[in-house]
Amino acid sequence: xxSWIIIIPILGILYSxxxxxxxxxxxxxxxxxxxxQIKFQPPSSLPxxxxxxxxPIKYENKDIYLLKLVLNEPEPVHFKLxxxxxxxxxxxxxxxxxxxxxxxxxxxxxxxxxxxxxTGQMKTQNILIxxxxxxxxxxxxxxxxxxxxxTPKKLDTHIPERNHLREPNKKILLCGYWPPSNECIRxxxxxxxxNPDGWIGQNWEGRGFDVVSYFPTFGIPDCDSCGQGFGDxxxxxxxxxEDWWNIVDSINPIAIITFSRGYxxxxxxxxxxxxxxxxxxxxxxxxxxxxxxxxxxxxxxNTRRYSSLPMDSIVSKIESSGLGLTPYIDYTQGAGQxxxxxMGYHGTWYKAQMDSANIPCYLAGHVHLGGLIxxxxxxxxxxxTLREVIKIVIEYQDLPGDINEDGVVSxxxxxTIVSYLLGIIEMNENELYLADINFDSIVDIFDLMLISNxxxxx
Length: 458
Description:
The structure is a single chain. This protein has 3 domains: about 25-145, Jelly Rolls, CATH 2.60.120; about 170-395, CATH 3.40.630.20; about 410-455, no CATH class. It is built from 7 helices and 19 strands. It has helices at about 235-250, 310-320, 340-355, 375-395, 410-420, 430-435, 445-455, and strands at about 35-40, 45, 55-60, 60-80, 90-95, 100-105, 115-120, 120-135, 145, 170-175, 210-215, 215, 230, 255-260, 265-270, 275, 305, 325-330, 365-370. The longest helix has 23 residues, at about 375-395. The protein is elongated, with a radius of gyration of 25 Å.
């Protein structure tokens, strides 16, 4: 399979989201006067003095500045931030006024980066910027510009060249964190206490794979600021890592999809890459950071690992599903430098380990679910994602030419066809299917020539 070298311009240090929960003050304060409004179209810079003419709203011990941006039409955008201008006790949100969803908070306490950051993606026509600062303090505008999403010219989301030599397991692993990411995969739990309605994952939809899920639970199931939770994959670095290796070692998954809650909106965000970071956002219980850090000692600091999920087809299917979600691929620097990225990294890390051991784990990647998505819609979108993953796993297993199904097209497969054509052996129905390289329903000398080309190309 061909490979592409992808070059993406990185604007300083780019983040996705997956920040600890916070809620804009806009929803709690009474707005009695018109909000300052300007029309904008990306890409475009925001003036340094854009907040100077805005009268702040005094709320608790903060000055709240509100600025409404109106775009010509709904389109996906990010905001480029200068993090050094976000001082202690300042916070910044970007609110979608059409859905009352939001991206943020961005603050010094959560983000230690002092360079440039790109916010999560929004797709709307009406955006409200909320900047909160300690009362009476001076500040400079940290919102540098509004930009369009960073997208590579070509992204090959297909799986790499297959080279597995062992019979694959038939289990697919789903993992979740905060709701709705835990609720959307609950029916796939084999734990009767967590899933009293019964496990639906056995030979799911007759597709030949058992689907199993693991996730934490919370005191308030439909929580906002949920905390650490309890059970499998608590929102804690040490608990997640310990549970992770115990689970994957016990089930040997052939594919992995990890989920977590992202922005408080209706997005279905597929994360493209994950980093072996040294610095992470603190969790809830000491030790507050991964131990060791960086977590993966087998590769250098900041090594990135990539999703192998069929992201383009997932986005296409969810866009056409009528679920009302906004699916997209996040091509920014990472998946948030918090527990979401930590779990996403573990998935792709495990896949790399299995690849090196010639043990099939074909796909791994992470999905962020918008916090406003209801549980039933999230389950439907998770099932769409799972179906697309299974299609690729099946395609990968049924590699044309791999007649003996040892994971590689080789001279052994050529000899099998030769023996069949000479009448020395018989082939069963599955072997005939795999030997029919040109799909003309006949195994003949032309298939032998094609399989020779495959071996030479590899």
